Amino acid sequence: MLAQLSFPVLSLPRFCSIFKKQPSLPMFLQQSNNMTQREKFNELNELEADRIHDGLENPQDSDWSLTEAMKRINRNRNRYSNVFPWDQTRVKLPVKDTEIHSDYINASRVRLGLHVDDKEIEEQIDDNSIQYIACQGPLPNTTNHFWSMCFNLSVDVLLLQQH
């Protein structure tokens, strides 16, 4: 049996100057001579920052809002203080009354965009077969939520990645 170790993630207050700095490049990109990789990495970081900013500034109109994840009632359901699902793609738990019980779990629906040149193969691909769920490892207080999600969404395969 594998044991999962968890360490608290500490976040600095928003006013700290560290938030104004460009994130440091991972070691493999620092050592890379390929400028395109670095540019793509920086572009992704910038895009992520823009989306988060838009979601926080315009929660009602933004495709990138994080309203549910940021609610006080749901904060103890997040393993990390800086990883949240977008409202638009989040998985909702089946609850009878959302006024009493939260339907929040830190999990997102992910669709795999396939580009197939062969028309015959493209017709055989079922849209439902290329959908996935990205989810944090469950916490002691969210283990039942995790298995409820798996059961209700008929999850066939679980893949756990730890670092």
Automatic annotation (TrEMBL):
<feature type="domain" description="Tyrosine-protein phosphatase">
    <location>
        <begin position="37"/>
        <end position="163"/>
    </location>
</feature>
<dbReference type="InterPro" id="IPR000242">
    <property type="entry name" value="PTP_cat"/>
</dbReference>
<protein>
    <recommendedName>
        <fullName>Tyrosine-protein phosphatase domain-containing protein</fullName>
    </recommendedName>
</protein>
<dbReference type="GO" id="GO:0004725">
    <property type="term" value="F:protein tyrosine phosphatase activity"/>
</dbReference>
<comment type="similarity">
    <text>Belongs to the protein-tyrosine phosphatase family. Non-receptor class subfamily.</text>
</comment>
<dbReference type="InterPro" id="IPR050348">
    <property type="entry name" value="Protein-Tyr_Phosphatase"/>
</dbReference>
<dbReference type="Pfam" id="PF00102">
    <property type="entry name" value="Y_phosphatase"/>
</dbReference>
